[in-house]
Amino acid sequence: MPIKIPDSLPATAVLESENIFVMTEYRAIHQDIRPLKLLILNLMPTKEQTEVQLLRKLSNTPLQIEVEFLRTISHESKNVSAEHLESFYVGLDDVKQKRYDGMIITGAPVENLDFEEVDYWRELCEIMEWTKTNVHSTFHICWGAQAGLYYHYGIKKHTLPRKLSGVYSHSILKPQSPFFRGFDDEFYAPHSRYTGVLAEDILAKPQLELLSVSEEAGVYAVKSEDNRRFFITGHPEYDPETLAQEYFRDVKKGLDIDVPKNYFESDDPAKKPICRWRAAAQLMYSNWLNYYVYQTTPYEISDVGKNGSV
Fold first, then answer.
1. From 51, 68, 235, 246, active-site residue
2. What is the pLDDT of residues 269-280, one digit of tens each?
3. Is the C or the N end of the chain the one with fewer CB within 10 Å?
4. Average pLDDT value for residue range 254-280
5. Choosing from 48, 51, 140, 142, which is the catalytic residue?
6. Residues 6 or more apart whose Cβ sits within 8 Å of residue 151
7. Full-prediction pTM beyond 0.90?
8. Of the residues 51, 68, 237, 246, which is catalytic?
9. What is residue 121's predicted lDDT score, i.e. its pLDDT?
10. Closest CA to 199 of 210, 189, 185, 207
11. Residue 244 exposed, middle or buried by CB count within 10 Å (0-12, 13-18, 19+)
12. Is 142 among the catalytic positions?
């Protein structure tokens, strides 16, 4: 998939070095097609790393995608330069009148706070409300999934006994779903979180469908019945080294943290990680883009959200 992003975005050089097709703005405007318009609300502190991870996952279909990055204005980001934010990010006021085929809301390291204690919670609620009328299909990740389930459906998160960190096996409850088309019966995905949601709470909501679970990690994939919202409790976009970086960071802080499960060779943090989720993650993003964005979004972008279109 050719991804249309600003030529000077640092992620561009990384993606091009991996032979990922990144389209220049000049070339994109000379193609006689309508690209899918995708907005990414990046709540992660390591914004540039998350940019690369997500753009990499969006790069494996024949679709052309035009990507914009959104941030919360009410929160001061400390791990990325003001120049980077000013150059590549917009606030909700900048896009309020726009419409998008798809949107991704990332996770954030704020799980141990109540939702209402998060300093940008009110702004995030405004953004999620705005998606009801201005975004065709929204993909929520990790804490972003918990926040979305709470805001849209009143589903509470629950604190886990210990941080869930590692790579876990998952099963598919709805194998007929296009979201899991091409998946093996068992697939792996990384998790890194202190909280989770309960399957019984999901099943109690007729507007929601529970798509995938893990015996160890619990609820994994949920979608709304109308396909407008997807909730993924793990981090399928993570690089092979991301869990290791988080683990060694926490150890350095002196936290009582477990070694990520099923991740390092022989479960030994002195050895290298084993990546067993890359193919499934790539397929998941491609299926969402193909079946729930490209094939169902209105041809005229201005029609997104009108008359309850899904």
1. 235
2. 999 999 999 999
3. C
4. 96
5. 142
6. 115, 124, 125, 128
7. no
8. 237
9. 97
10. 210
11. middle
12. yes
